[in-house]
Write a structure and sequence with these properties.
The chain is an alpha/beta fold. It folds into two domains: about 130 residues, NAD(P)-binding Rossmann-like Domain (Rossmann fold), CATH 3.40.50; about 160 residues, Dihydrodipicolinate Reductase, domain 2, CATH 3.30.360.10. It is about 35% helix and about 25% strand. It has nine helices and 17 strands. The strands form three sheets. The chain has a nine-stranded mixed beta sheet. Helix 4 runs parallel beside helix 5 and helix 7 packs across helix 9.
Amino acid sequence: MMKIGVIGTGDWGKNHLRAFSEIDCELVGLADINPDKKELADKHKIKFFTDYKQLLPLVDAVSVVIPTDKHYDVVKDCLNNGKHILVEKPITSDSKSAEELVNLAKAKGLILAVGYLFRFNSAVIRLKEEIKKIGDIQAITGRYIHSNKPPRKDSGVIFNFAIHLVDILNFILDNNPKKVFCKKANFLSKEREDYAFINLDYTDFIANLEVSWLHPLKKRDLWIIGSKAKIYADLFEQILIKYPIEITNEKITSKPEINLEVNKNEPLKDELTAFCKCINNKKERTFKGGEEILTTKICELALQSAKTGKEMIINE
């Protein structure tokens, strides 16, 4: 059975511990620089270390759930020690170091998965199927907003929130954006943006994304506007509503809205299960490696666009 360790137990790391304890693997240990987190290890009846390097000899794979600015060094060290890795998004905050880690994993024959949770969300998976039935895409809007937690200090709202929406679009669409334009605002900190609007130009249509740490609502949703139908996706509640509406210069044709069936799931458990399956069966390529480089690059260019005021070309 696959032996797993978790590095880092903030709010989300606690979820990793719980999920691993409920799926088909052996949860061996926890590493966290805070010695008080030993209580979590004791709760799960696993070993505890304040130095993650002491955990590595005991496991086949690790889940890295630490601040973004620590990802590169820890992930590289774990790969050099021959460990399969699932690292929470983003893999790093720049595409050059992301590519370096992806290439290192490939060279060593290791799985390097990035925790883009929404790829395992049942509503997103169903949306990927349904989007092929709504005609030509005319526009997309998306929101990833809330204000019920203190903002993170390792990255701004673009690499923390927008990166999810960008990855979802990379996952559900057949083509990638060609240009990106972004406007951001820094109300709470000079170092980290807390509000941003991002335009992704796909040549035939534009996707507009709103991300914020300041909004009173907690929303993770998308509108996909097609020529034959429109779909609203509430990714938090895992609800899809299809509106069969066609609009021309001459008329509007519409039928009653349809609540599409979604078998709601816990995406994290499905993601971690897929990670373990990939390790056990190298032919299982749920995590292909490399797609996270493009996602990182788009967010990197969004920040450059906001800084320069110019639209940036996305070269894959």
